[in-house]
Amino acid sequence: MEKLTEKQKRFVRAYKTNGNNATKAAVTAGYSKKTAYSQGQRLLKNVEIKKALGLEDEKLQKKYEYTLEKLVEELEIAQKSAIELGNLTAYLKAIELKGKAFGLFTDTVRGNIELTQALVRYVPTKKETEKQNDETS
To answer: Could you give the number of structural domains in the chain?
Structure first.
């Protein structure tokens, strides 16, 4: 990160601590609230910042020994538990988090509509859940 300015270094650290939110990270790093959105987007395109963010990811993974595979395994367990309990909210949240982990979510309305349609096809109905619970009891 030696090629970055102090403000850019603060942005990189803040980006990770603000849940990968570039606007919040820009404000935290000291950029104007008025221009934080555009500054955040511009900073994310900077090659040196991209490298620094990649290094931060590697450091975090090594520190916590956390990988994408481990995350997905844990989300699979949560998803199965949610189905067993008939908790649709938890089930959908697990799917959402898996999608985010794989970068499947976009900010476009079309992407959200397609995702919603896909989720609706795979979410068990209340009757299906009750039937499954009766069969396992």
So the answer is: 2
